[in-house]
Write a structure and sequence with these properties.
The protein is α/β, with parallel strands linked by helices. The chain folds into two domains: about 200 residues, NAD(P)-binding Rossmann-like Domain (Rossmann fold), CATH 3.40.50.720; about 100 residues, Alpha-Beta Complex (UDP-galactose 4-epimerase, domain 1), CATH 3.90.25.10. About 40% of the residues lie in helices and about 15% in strands. The protein has ten helices and 14 strands. The chain has a seven-stranded parallel beta sheet, sandwiched between helices. The longest helix has 22 residues. It is globular. The mean pLDDT is about 95.
């Protein structure tokens, strides 16, 4: 009896697997290694290389490993790129999720934790995003995540699927230096790589209506995120009632300028970021409440910004030395 983590060889997925292993909950990984890394999967965790688009492989994996629930993280995750590659995004995130649900129903697996995204909200005109904030995604990626949530809700009505979806913004840091963010688009790895190469990072706009003029966002530590995926899985396994959707937010957020200042302090690299023009479509502030998740899933942020930066920098340095 085990939980399947799709995308379990990726940055976030590998941290989720680590949380399951530490809790003594059996787990198996399915990952196509499009952006994942086989070395991120512990040697004693069963690893199946393949895509969730392969229904036969999904079904075989569910049966062979006696899977009772799924944490679904596999998919195409780059919101900006999704605008130029919408068909790939929908194939991976919508068709892939539908295929996974089809095979789960076929073999009687009825529990799923969906790794969704705050991109489902688009650019909300509120100071604090809650689960009742209207969804209005602005990219194929955000749209595909919202459709994924709809698929889960429809399967609940049609086949009794028990599920919940976790929406979050920017995930940073590392729980262990062996697991690190390799995204070519995320702020932390981009800035840290530039600094390691002796180049200067940039801030896109410093004239927003925020305290220091730069954009404010939620940044959450990947270890806290992984712990909440585990908590959601255990809640479903225990039969506890859950909301369909939870935001994993900080409640206050941090600015890009604060991040740059903290990175300089932690790394000891004295730099002044270049201020570039605003990027089209960047809202001044998007911050979410995590109150519902705290109530039902024990969500809390155990890492401050300095800890997030320090763990990310240590992991980046370790990766560069390999």
């Amino acid at each position: 009896m085990a939980w399947l983590v799709t995308g379990g060889a990726g940055y976030i997925g590998a941290h989720v697997v680590r949380a399951f292993v530490q809790a003594g909950t059996p787990v198996v990984v399915l990952d196509a290694l499009t952006s994942g890394h086989p070395q991120f999967v512990p040697a004693d965790v069963p690893f199946v290389r393949g895509t969730i688009l392969d229904g036969d492989l999904v079904r075989h994996t569910l049966v062979e490993h006696e899977v009772t629930g799924v944490v679904h993280l596999a998919g195409f995750k780059y919101a900006g790129v999704s605008v130029t590659r919408p068909l790939l995004t929908y194939q991976q995130n919508v068709t892939g999720t539908a295929t996974l649900l089809e095979q789960m129903q076929a073999v009687g697996v009825d529990q799923l934790v969906f790794s969704s995204s705050a991109a489902t909200y688009g650019t909300p005109d509120v100071d604090l995003v809650t689960e009742s904030t209207p969804t209005s995604p602005e990219s194929p990626y955000g749209e595909s995540k919202l459709i994924g949530e709809w698929l889960l809700a429809d399967q609940e009505k049609a086949a009794g699927l028990r599920h919940t979806s976790l929406r979050y913004f920017n995930v940073v840091g590392s729980a262990t230096p062996e697991l690190y963010d390799t995204s070519p688009h995320n702020l932390f790895p981009v800035v840290l790589r530039l600094l390691a190469e002796g180049r200067t990072p940039q801030i896109n706009g410093d004239d927003y209506p925020t305290p220091d003029g730069t954009c404010v966002r939620d940044y959450i530590h990947v270890e806290d995120l992984a712990a909440t995926h585990l908590a959601a899985a255990h809640a479903l396994a225990d039969g506890r009632p859950l909301e369909r959707v939870y935001n994993l937010g900080s409640g206050d957020g941090v600015s890009v300028r604060q991040i740059m200042t903290t990175i300089a302090e932690v790394t000891g690299l004295d730099f002044e970021p270049v201020v570039a023009p605003r990027r089209s479509g960047d809202p001044a502030r998007i911050v979410a409440s995590g109150e519902l998740a705290a109530r039902d899933l024990g969500w809390r942020m155990t890492h401050d910004l300095r800890s997030m930066v320090a763990s990310a920098w240590e992991a980046q340095q370790r990766a560069a030395a390999r």
